[in-house]
């Protein structure tokens, strides 16, 4: 379709970059996203990618839908400016609007197109989406009404519940876009709607500096209180973890310490006799058990067990989330080794185990709301639930997880890995290595379970991790998956 690298060069020269299309399919979407990612990395604003992918998608689709409407009226010999004809045409069009693919050929043969334009102006980004069809007064009024409304609501769920049944469903897209941009730190009135004789433009300016805006909801404060009242992390486990990390620690010291806690001692024995560690005989002594498990495994196992005990006591058991966390942890450790980040191997593992605990809190607090959020995410093909959680609740599962990790006095890099596991390109990350590793591990797990497009993995992250050959990396991932499925689930299965 178009060459995004060429266009990016044009962008670098300060020229306006423009791409036009008559309909959207997956290839076009990928092209647009890849151009966006190049443009944002040049402006040092990679962290806006998820937000802008969704905003662009909504704006472009609104434009295509408006064009489809015109093609539909013309094909039916109906006058779109005539009240009676309009009502008649819209009755059937509403059904068609949900299936743009049926009108693809007609759109391609029509004179209507949507043009996306971008330009670097003084370090900020000027964006506009132009439709070469005259907007109807009613349509314009609706767009403006929704933009106004979007500024009134406190969060997206309020908007969603109030607007869902509204006619001409496109309205939600505009509200979603305004809220996403607000959440990303853009001024309230971000869009400019410019109607013209033969076209309509929606423009948007992203300034070089963004200031964040707080989104509130009643459940946010409930969650914060709840997290605040979580028990502290068991002191003896923290001490044992430090002992495991210390190269001078002997098996005997550790074993003695474990023996002081009967419940812990039983867990360690149980684990050493599990299928993951085949020793050929029944282990009954703690020191033998520690030797078989190994200090590194013991460290992760102790953390995992303590973690689950606290969470399971407080919240419902969400096996699926734990299974996912366990897999992410394993992948994170292997990826860290593969890319040569030896120093973060262990922390990446623990971060993987912890990364989604915020989801457990959210699900336990308001499962209905969380389901609604996941509907929105699937419906509108949003790449990460975090940004929708932010605009709906005011806090994401990643931020909640980070609060918990912080409360439990886990090291800073671990807290960061949890906080940014969906936003590895966010500014001001201090421990980007472990963040990227956990991001990639999580992304691979999501890919596996939903068979998402591999292009959804941030190419900038792959570059930074020096993963240059996709084929070699894919082979490595297959190896990972097989090994995990064969051996590595034991930690979860045999955990107390
Ligand atoms: Fe997550
Ligand atoms: Fe996850």
What secondary-structure arrangement, pairings included, does this model have?
Layout lengths: L3 H9 L4 E5 L4 H17 L6 H27 L7 H15 L6 H5 L5 E8 L2 E8 L5 H16 L3 H8 L7 H13 L7 E5 L4 E7 L11 H11 L6 H11 L5 H9 L2 H11 L13 H8 L1 H20 L4 H20 L6 H10 L2 H9 L1 H13 L5 H8 L4 H11 L4 H8 L12 H19 L8 H6 L5 H19 L1 H4 L3
Antiparallel strand pairs: 1-2, 2-3, 3-5, 4-5
Helix pairs in contact: 1-2, 2-3, 3-4, 3-8, 6-8, 7-8, 9-20, 10-11, 10-14, 11-13, 12-13, 14-16, 15-16, 15-22, 15-24, 16-21, 16-22, 17-18, 17-20, 18-19, 20-21, 21-22
Bound molecules: fe (ii) ion (2 copies).
In short:
This protein is of the alpha+beta class and 496 residues long.
Could you list some keywords that capture this structure?
binds fe (ii) ion; five-stranded antiparallel β-sheet; 25 helices; 2 domains; 496 residues; Hypothetical protein af1432; Heat Shock Protein 90
Q: What structural class results from the helix and strand content?
A: alpha+beta
Radius of gyration: 26 Å
Largest sheet, in brief, is:
5 strands, antiparallel
Helical fraction equals: 55-70%
Write the H/E string, N to C.
Answer: HEHHHHEEHHHEEHHHHHHHHHHHHHHHHH
> Overall mean pLDDT score?
85
CATH architecture of the largest domain: Orthogonal Bundle
Strand content: 5-15%
Q: Report how far apart the termini are.
A: 55 Å
Ligand catalogue: fe (ii) ion
The CATH homology group name of the largest domain = Hypothetical protein af1432
Count every beta strand, where a strand is a DSSP E run of 2 or more residues.
5
Unreliable residue stretches? none
Helical stretch count?
25
Lateral arrangement of strands in the main beta sheet = 1-2-3-5-4
Shape: elongated
Number of domains: 2
Kindly provide the name of the CATH class of the largest domain.
Mainly Alpha
Could you tell me the CATH topology label of the largest domain.
Hypothetical protein af1432
């Amino acid at each position: 379709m178009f060459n995004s690298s060429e266009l990016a060069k044009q962008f670098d020269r300060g020229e306006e970059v423009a791409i036009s299309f008559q309909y959207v399919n997956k290839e076009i979407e990928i092209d647009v996203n890849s151009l966006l990612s190049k443009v944002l990395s040049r402006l040092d604003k990679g962290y806006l990618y998820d937000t802008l992918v969704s905003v662009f998608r909504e704006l472009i689709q609104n434009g295509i839908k408006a064009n489809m409407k015109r093609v539909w009226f013309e094909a039916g010999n109906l006058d779109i400016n005539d009240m009676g004809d309009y009502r008649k045409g819209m009755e059937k069009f509403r059904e068609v609007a949900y299936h743009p693919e049926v009108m693809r050929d007609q759109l391609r043969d029509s004179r209507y197109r949507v043009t996306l334009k971008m330009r670097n102006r003084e370090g900020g980004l000027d964006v506009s989406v132009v439709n070469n069809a005259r907007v109807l007064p009613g349509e314009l009024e609706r767009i403006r009404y929704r933009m106004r409304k979007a500024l009134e609501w406190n969060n997206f769920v309020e908007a969603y519940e109030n607007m869902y049944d509204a006619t001409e469903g496109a309205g939600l897209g505009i509200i979603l876009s305004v809220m996403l941009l607000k959440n990303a730190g853009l001024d309230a009135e971000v869009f400019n709607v410019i109607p013209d004789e033969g076209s309509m433009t929606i423009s948007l300016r992203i300034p070089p500096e963004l200031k964040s805006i707080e989104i509130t909801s009643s459940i946010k404060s409930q969650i914060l209180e709840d997290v605040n009242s979580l028990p502290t992390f068991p002191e003896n486990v923290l001490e044992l973890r430090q002992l495991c990390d210390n190269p001078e620690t002997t098996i005997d010291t550790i074993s003695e310490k474990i023996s002081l806690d009967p419940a812990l001692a039983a867990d360690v024995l149980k684990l050493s006799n599990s299928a993951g560690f085949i020793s050929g005989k029944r282990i009954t002594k703690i020191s033998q058990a520690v030797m078989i498990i190994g200090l590194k495994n013991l460290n992760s196992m102790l953390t995992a067990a303590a973690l689950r005990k606290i969470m399971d006591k407080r919240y419902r058991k969400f096996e699926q989330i734990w299974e996912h966390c366990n897999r992410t942890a394993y992948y994170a450790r292997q990826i860290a080794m593969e890319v040569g980040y030896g120093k973060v191997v262990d922390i990446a593992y623990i971060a993987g185990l912890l990364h989604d605990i915020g989801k457990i809190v959210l699900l336990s607090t308001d499962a209905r709301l969380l389901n609604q959020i996941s509907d929105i995410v699937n419906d509108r093909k949003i790449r990460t639930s975090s940004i929708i959680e932010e605009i709906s609740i005011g806090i994401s599962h990643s931020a909640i997880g980070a609060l918990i990790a912080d409360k439990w006095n886990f090291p800073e890099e671990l807290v960061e890995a949890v906080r940014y596991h969906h936003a590895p390109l966010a500014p001001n990350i201090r421990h980007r290595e472990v963040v990227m590793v956990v991001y990639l591990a999580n992304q691979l797990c999501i890919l596996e379970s939903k068979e998402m497009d591999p292009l959804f993995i941030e190419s900038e992250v792959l570059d930074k991790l020096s993963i240059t050959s996709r084929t070699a990396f894919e082979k490595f991932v297959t190896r990972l998956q097989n090994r995990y499925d064969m051996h590595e689930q034991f930690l979860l299965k045999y955990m107390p």
